[in-house]
Amino acid sequence: MLSKRVVACLDVRDGHLAKSVKFVDTKNIGDPIEKARAYYEDGLDELVFYDITASNEHRNIMIDVVERVASEIFIPFSVGGGIRSVGDATKLRLAGAEKVNVNSAAVQDPDLIARISEAIGAQSTILSMDVLRVEASDSIPSGYEIVIHGGRKHTGKDALAWAQRGVELGAGELVVNSIDADGTREGYEIRLTRMIADAVPVPVIASGGAGKPEHLYDVLTEGRADAALIASMVHYGDYRVSELKQYLAERGLAIRTRW
Amino acid sequence: MITIVDYNAGNLRSVKRACDAVGIESVFTQDASAVASAERIIFPGVGHARSAMETLIETGLRDAILGAFDRGTPILGICVGAQLLLDGSEEGPTDGLGLIGGMTRRFQLDDPTLKIPHMGWNAVDVTQSHPLLEGLEPKDELYFVHSYYLDPSKRAHVFATSDYGGAFACAIGRDNLFATQFHPEKSGRLGLELLSRFATWGGSPC
Question: Which of A169, B26, B50, B195 is the Cys-Cys partner for B2 at CB 3.0 to 4.6 Å?
């Protein structure tokens, strides 16, 4: 039976680790490769590196980070942030990333998903979506809207319709990030995650809001997610990856417990 | 020295990095004669089976691999590299190398909660002991990402199975040939150990 995955997200700025809370006030909390290795050794199933480097001249630092991760860490990892072209995606794949996350650029140019998927395969193409709860309306019937630029810009796109469109275009996996829950540590947006997981034939990674082990359990069961993304709850040492996995296994989920 | 067959199949660098990490010397090659004379061969693969097979035929790598097998060279196939060892694949469709009888088939899953591709960590059950699988314990999990599965015709060629809407073969082999649907290079310590065992494997299934 396929196990549920625990995925840690590392936000990287100019080659250093950062953690965003509500996407503002990021502060540097360490070396991404050192953190990644510690999680790998503690049984993490997968990693996501999100490049929040502001300036283009520092982009190559990320390629360097990816190459170093790929030489030391032998679990799958994906990279997101600032991917605007097939060239960006293939460069990261060659540097050793198993998968590539597209987000804002795909909202502005949906065909980018198809082009990347054609070049590196659907299984390596992740559509990452930042979602905000809104009043349901004719244009946004699900009551969840896609936002971009770290949640600052509304797009008028319905999250459910966008998820389905992304899969049609060639995304092999979705990251569903709730802007409302992100940084709160009060739990994932279960209703949103479940709505999307039930509507698409590809795996869904739930993101935003993890603060306690039961939050992971809830989103992996009631929320129907295939994987749960965690960040601050492990970055600051409140929980260990192995402890979370042990908890989920004890509650009866299929979880990888030997590594 | 391990020769990694390079036919633009995507995950070559990952395999090389994993070999480097456990101190195994390896080289990439697209040169059929280098494959034919290799000491041992890793035949990796990610991507589309038919286009992979077309490349193998055009470059002469197909015949080089077949010749190496006949001479007893230890060969490890990974993912699409494993699928292409069978008679054929539904992905394309295409013929395979025909070294092991059977077909590569697309998952047909009745349960709508089972997503395709089968992606993530899954338990590998050893059904027949093999030197390369030594050290794996029941319920040990390895990393998979695939939409097509191995369906060899003889049970004697199956060494391990995994379960995704039913059991499927995830490690197959015969004689000096062994192949896995899972990715040892992405499967943490357990996968690296399998690669280490391959580096010293004599080429006998028992």
Answer: B26
